[in-house]
Amino acid sequence: MRKIYSNNNVALVWHVKNMLQQQGIEVEIRNDRLYSVAGEIPVSECMGEVWVINALNYQTAERLIGEMELLCMPEFDSWVCHACGEEVDGAFALCWNCQAAPTGQTSDISD
Ligand SMILES: [Zn+2]
Description:
Elements: E1 2-9, H1 10-22, E2 27-30, H2 32-36, E3 45-52, H3 58-71, E4 79-80, E5 87-88
Antiparallel strand pairs: 1-3, 2-3, 4-5
The structure holds zinc ion.
C-alpha cells in the first residue's frame, strides 16, 4: 500500500480513485470520515487519501494523475447531477458522487 494522492476536495479524491480503477489499478480511499459515511454523500470539506494497493502500480498511477491534472483545467462550467443533485465540477465527465453522466450526454472519458 502506498499513498498516491491526497486532497481536501473530496470530489477530486473520488475522481482520482474512479479514474485509476478504470485503468485497472486497485486503489482504496482512506479517510476516517469517509469510511464512517460510506454509502452516503461524503462531507465536502475533509481530507481524503487515495492509496495504491499494489506498489508496482504506483508509477503508472502517478503518471495518470499527472495527465488528469493537466486535463482538469478549471474553466468548465459546473453542472448539477440529475440523479443525486450534487454539483459537479465541469472538468468531470461523471458525477463524483454517483457516477451518473450529465443529462443527455454519455461519458466521454477516453484514453
Ligand atoms: Zn450524482
